[in-house]
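Changelog-adjacent note: as of this version, every example in the card shows the full chain rather than a window. The one below runs 381 residues end to end.
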Amino acid sequence: MNAGFVPLLPAERLPLDTVKRQASLFAASPAAGVLDRLPLGVAVCNSARQIVYSNEKFRELASLECESALLVGKRLGEALSCLGAGLEVGGCGTSELCRSCGMAKALLASLTQPGMTHGECSVARQGNNKLESLDFRIWIWAMAYGGESFHAAILTDIRAEKRLALMERIFYHDILNMVSGMRGICELMREEEECARNAELELLTFAAERINDLILSQRDFSLAEHGEYDVASNKMGTLSLLSDVTGLMRREPSARGKNLVIDGDSADVFFISDRKLVTRILVNMQKNALEATKAGETVTVGCDQDGGFVRFWVRNPGLVPDEARPQIFRRAFSTKGVGRGLGTYGMKLFAENYLDGEVGFTSDAASGTMFFVRLPAANKA
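Full-length structure tokens:
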């Protein structure tokens, strides 16, 4: 059920002969044959929210093997066997449970305002002798046909999407707890073991911390793609942050045999942003540059002030191929092979969708390739 409450919808229904006449009107329409072949659930309701037409996919969503005529006169929640639809004599939209229903909210909006409305809804229903949940996304809009007013609804089943989101949340929660336990054990061993073992423990601790960072990075990426990431406000210095990230990246396998240096003219400027997201962007920028650099070559990083913005940049001697340039920030595109391509996409997603920044690059034979991120010195808050 969606957050937020809606008023109860009217219980009154149109006479059965009127509903049947409207159903015959739609059954004879040429559009009925087309709608029956759509891979989306479609239902048309009259002004009293009673179904006068439903296509095959809608009936499949409702888990009903029946003709469209058998649903005529029912309301959407009733056709979908929602438990809340049977709590009041008025049916769907008239019980207290309906006040928080995403479908009722979309229906009410379509009755009171022009244009298409949409929402998400979770319907609890009794099916196959067990309680089950039907999750769907719904779009509703008003339409006129045969001189009368109707509302068309499109429903898509999002149960698989919801299950995957739940599994992701459980996975991240459980695996982060396990890694946290590993780090705790490392700390205990560090305190108890002799100094001769400290180097090995440091390496083990570093590995556990990197695993933790990778998991958090993927979790944040998933939240950001779904528009659910909560941006924090942290005050930090550009040079201090860049030094921390660069020190970390020098220990990465991709940095072996290569030089990673900070430009001597880098400026130390205080700015306000989400430290975690900025760190993710800088890590991706440096990692991509190191992976594109040959042994013995140098990757240079820097930071400066640009008006009311701060800018971080990473330069490597390589060249981005002409055919790859238009796609460099596209999701899942990579010049490094299958299964890659979230680095540059993630940089742009975080910087431009959440930090009001800008990500870009230049690449030419004379100066190599430079990626940069430009961020406001102060956030909107």
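Structural remarks: The chain has ten helices and twelve strands.
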